[in-house]
Structures are given as structure tokens and as C-alpha cells.
């Protein structure tokens, strides 16, 4: 295993010194837990800074550290550095059962039970329950090795109940751990919380900092999604300038992808003006892919027009788009739009004043994950293959429920909006018939 790890390490230009250190340790003495954790942190930071070859190395090191911690003599944890190492390990994607084992073995009180109890609850999905106790304990660790991790955890735990306070904890975490996976995660999540809290200016500042540093992160695709959410929810003349400033740090392919996502989200929300604007800008950035971008632009504009007075033309435009020009996710969205359009224009039935929308074909079970992986109508995201966040990793732990939910929330939202329109029409028809 050690030979395999050194081979993986050597493949990464950033990790060559680490490979040499591990190789030397093999011939003399075993690396202590805290030294292995330093290596893990180095690898994880390298990943979010663009060295994706280190991802496999990260997985291997988590397994090696787990073995080392489980085999360690309890006396090893008299050294506070090894205690911190165990806590950082479990907050970096490690096995929660290992923390349970170490905490249960701790008869000398080397571990702070407030911290271990909070982490054990958090890793078991009980984040909101730890807020009060961890809020009291975390300030004592502000200047410690585990401080940034604890504040990131605390921000995650309270993000649903108090997004503004959560952003303050994210701020502390990222400012005390610049250039690390902690900062990357804190910035990315702060963009989402700022959008939800109605603080667009803060959100755009976070997004600008992220775009300057972490566009090569494997989680940049998730950043693109929350940035689009922010831009669509708070788009005006001032926001247009901020969006352009942030996109200036991206190459044309990434800019086009963002505009396509904005167009898709705006079309689903019924914002025809923004859908047209974003589609036009995506087309201008299309280059050799202009025909595909034109198809997507027409698709999103037609989608936005479905609930409008021009529903007939919109339905015809959607029907005219070939299936092969759309991603699986957008094909499903088109089926939903066609069902809504058909229900809107269908004559009322005499036996019932309420019209049920046409059924949507169920997705095959194997297709669900494929649809969830599609980032936008382009189907070819330049942000790279999206990485699914582990529910156990602090550096990857999401505070948003929809990040882990299967399927397409936008698809469901469009259906709900369409059905609402149908209900309104039915109510009017019913009133006219009385």
C-alpha cells in the first residue's frame, strides 16, 4: 500500500516532497498521526487548487490514517497534536466510527467531550442539536489547529435556522485558513446563504473571491449553480455589472455555461427578459458551437413563454426542437412544459370543472442519477465533472438539502408553477359557467 501511495503522490507535482517524506519514514519510524494529518491537509488543499490527480491520493490517505488512529496506544493522545489530528481526520471525511472508538477509550480526558459529543451528533445528522453547545465551546479553539474546522461545522449546523450568523462563522473559518479547502467550502456556501438571506451585495463579494481563486476546484460546478441562483434572484442593472465582473475571471466556455444556466433558471421562473438576455450573451460566446447555443436560446425563451398569452407559439417552438439537441434533463423539462401547455389550451370537459395535467412519463430508475448530474442544457460543463459532496466530510458537507436531493428541483418547480396557472384558469372557467 505504501508503494502505491508513493506512486500516486509522485504523479502530483505539488506532492513530490510529501512522497519523499513518506518513503523515508518507511525505512526509519512510522509517521505519527499528526504528521499524517498534515499530509492529508496538504493533499486536500492541492485538490481544490486544481491538482485533481490528488483525489485518489486523498482517499488512500484517509484509509491509512484511519488504521493508524485505531491502532494507536491511548497514551499517544497525551500529545494534544494527536488529539487535534483525530478531530481533523473525522472532520475531513474520515470514518465517524473511529471518533466513537477513540472517545470511548479516552479515560484520561485527553479529548474535550464537548467537541467530541458535538461532532458525533453532527456526523449522525443531528446538526441543529449541536448549535448551542458548540457555540459556547468553539471560541476557545479560535487560535487552535481545529478552530477553522469547528467554525465551518458550526456554520453548517446553523445555516438553515440563521443564515446570517452562519455566514459570520464561515467568515472566521475562511479568514483563518486562507488558500485551503476550508476557505473554498466557506466561500462557496456563503454565496448560497447570501442569496437565501436576500443579501446580494455580500453574495457577489463572496462569488468574486471564489472566482479569483477556486475555479479549478472539483466543486466549482456547485459554485456555478449557487452563483446562478444568486444572479437570477437579484438581477438588476447593478447586479449585471457585478455578474460581468465575476465572469471576467472565467474563460469564454465557463462564461457561456453560466449564462446558459441563468437562461434556464430564468425561463423556469417565467422571467422572459432575463432568459432572452442570458441566452443572447451565451450565443455571443458560443464560437464554433453557435448552432447548439441558438437551439438552447430558443428552447429557454420558449419555456419562459409557456405560462404567457403566447402559449400556442411557445408550444410549437418547443415541439420543433430535435431531441438530440437537448440534454436528458432538458428533454424531461420540455415534456413538463408541453404537458402544462396542453393543459392550458385543452377545452374544459363537461363532467369536471377541474382539469388534471397530462401525465409525465416516469423516469427510469437508472436515469435519475444521470439527470441529477446534468448541470444545464449544454450537457458539456467546462467546470468539469461535478463532484458529489460526501455527507460526512466537513470540507464537502453541504448545508443545502437540495444538494443531496435526487432529480431536478427546477423541473419540479416548473411543474408546480404550471399547475398553479392551470388552477387559476380552471377557477375562471368555473366562475363563467355559474
Descriptive report:
It is a single chain. The chain is an all-alpha fold and 434 residues long. It is 64% helix and 0% strand. It has 21 helices and no strands. Helix 15 runs antiparallel to helix 16 and helix 17 packs antiparallel against helix 18. The radius of gyration is 25 Å and the shape is elongated. The N terminus is likely disordered. Keywords: Signal. This is Chemotaxis protein MotC. It comes from Sinorhizobium kummerowiae.
Any descriptors?
single chain, 434 residues, mainly alpha, 21 helices, elongated, Chemotaxis protein MotC, signal
Task: Describe the secondary structure blueprint for this structure.
Elements (H helix, E strand, L loop, with lengths): L1 H9 L5 H12 L5 H16 L6 H17 L8 H12 L4 H10 L7 H11 L7 H7 L9 H12 L4 H13 L5 H16 L3 H14 L6 H14 L3 H11 L4 H18 L2 H13 L5 H16 L5 H9 L8 H18 L21 H7 L35 H24 L2
Helix pairs in contact: 1-2, 3-4, 3-5, 6-7, 9-10, 10-11, 11-12, 11-13, 12-13, 12-14, 13-15, 15-16, 15-17, 16-17, 17-18, 18-19, 19-21
Q: Report, as a whole number of angstroms, the end-to-end distance.
A: 79 Å
Instruction: Look at the helices and sheets and give the structural class.
Output: mainly alpha
Instruction: Give unreliable regions as ranges.
Output: 1-5, 7-17, 19-29, 350-375, 390-407
- What is the number of helical segments per DSSP (H or I, 4+ residues)? 21
Largest sheet, if any? none
Shape: elongated
What do the pLDDT scores average to? 77
Could you estimate the helical fraction of the residues in percent?
55-70%
Report the order of strands and helices: HHHHHHHHHHHHHHHHHHHHH
Compute the gyration radius: what is it?
25 Å
Strand content bin: under 5%
Q: How many strand elements?
A: 0
Amino acid at each position: 500500500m505504501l508503494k502505491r501511495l508513493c506512486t500516486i503522490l509522485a504523479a502530483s507535482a505539488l506532492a513530490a516532497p510529501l512522497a519523499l517524506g513518506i518513503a523515508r519514514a518507511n525505512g526509519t519510524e512510522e509517521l505519527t498521526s499528526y504528521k499524517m494529518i498534515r499530509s492529508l491537509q496538504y493533499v486536500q488543499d492541492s485538490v481544490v487548487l486544481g491538482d485533481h490527480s490528488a483525489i485518489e491520493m486523498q482517499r488512500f490517505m484517509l484509509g491509512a490514517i484511519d488504521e493508524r488512529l485505531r491502532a494507536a496506544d491511548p497514551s499517544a493522545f497525551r500529545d494534544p497534536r494527536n488529539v487535534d489530528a483525530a478531530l481533523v481526520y473525522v472532520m475531513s471525511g474520515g470514518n465517524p466510527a473511529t471518533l466513537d472508538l477513540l472517545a470511548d477509550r479516552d479515560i484520561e480526558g485527553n479529548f474535550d467531550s464537548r467537541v467530541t459529543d458535538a461532532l458525533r451528533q453532527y456526523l449522525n445528522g443531528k446538526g441543529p442539536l449541536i448549535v448551542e453547545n458548540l457555540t459556547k465551546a468553539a471560541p476557545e479553539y479560535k487560535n487552535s489547529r481545529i478552530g477553522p474546522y469547528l467554525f465551518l461545522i458550526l456554520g453548517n449546523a446553523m445555516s438553515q435556522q440563521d443564515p446570517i450568523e452562519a455566514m459570520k462563522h464561515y467568515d472566521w473559518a475562511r479568514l483563518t485558513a486562507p488558500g485551503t479547502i476550508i476557505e473554498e467550502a466557506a466561500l462557496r456556501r456563503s454565496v448560497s446563504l447570501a442569496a437565501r438571506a436576500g443579501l446580494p451585495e455580500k453574495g457577489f463579494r463572496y462569488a468574486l473571491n471564489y472566482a479569483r481563486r477556486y475555479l479549478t476546484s472539483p466543486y466549482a460546478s456547485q459554485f456555478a449553480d449557487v452563483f446562478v441562483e444568486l444572479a437570477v434572484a437579484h438581477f438588476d442593472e447593478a447586479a449585471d455589472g457585478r455578474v460581468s465582473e465575476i465572469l471576467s475571471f472565467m474563460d469564454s466556455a465557463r462564461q457561456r455555461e453560466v449564462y446558459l444556466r441563468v437562461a434556464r433558471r430564468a425561463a423556469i421562473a417565467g422571467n422572459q427578459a432575463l432568459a432572452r438576455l442570458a441566452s443572447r450573451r451565451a450565443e455571443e460566446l458560443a464560437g464554433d458551437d453557435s448552432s447548439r447555443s441558438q437551439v438552447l436560446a430558443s428552447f429557454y425563451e420558449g419555456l419562459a413563454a409557456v405560462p404567457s398569452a403566447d402559449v400556442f407559439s411557445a408550444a410549437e417552438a418547443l415541439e420543433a426542437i430535435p431531441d438530440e439537441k437537448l440534454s436528458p434533463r432538458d428533454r424531461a423539462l420540455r415534456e413538463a412544459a408541453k404537458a402544462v401547455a396542453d393543459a392550458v389550451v385543452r377545452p374544459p370537459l363537461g363532467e369536471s370543472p377541474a382539469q388534471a395535467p397530462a401525465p409525465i412519463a416516469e423516469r427510469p430508475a437508472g436515469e435519475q442519477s444521470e439527470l441529477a448530474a446534468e448541470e444545464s442544457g449544454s450537457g458539456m460543463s467546462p467546470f468539469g465533472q461535478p463532484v458529489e459532496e460526501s455527507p460526512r466530510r466537513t470540507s464537502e458537507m453541504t448545508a443545502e438539502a437540495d444538494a443531496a436531493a435526487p432529480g431536478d428541483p427546477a423541473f419540479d418547480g416548473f411543474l408546480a408553477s404550471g399547475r398553479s396557472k392551470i388552477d387559476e384558469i380552471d377557477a375562471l372557467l368555473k366562475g363563467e359557467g355559474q
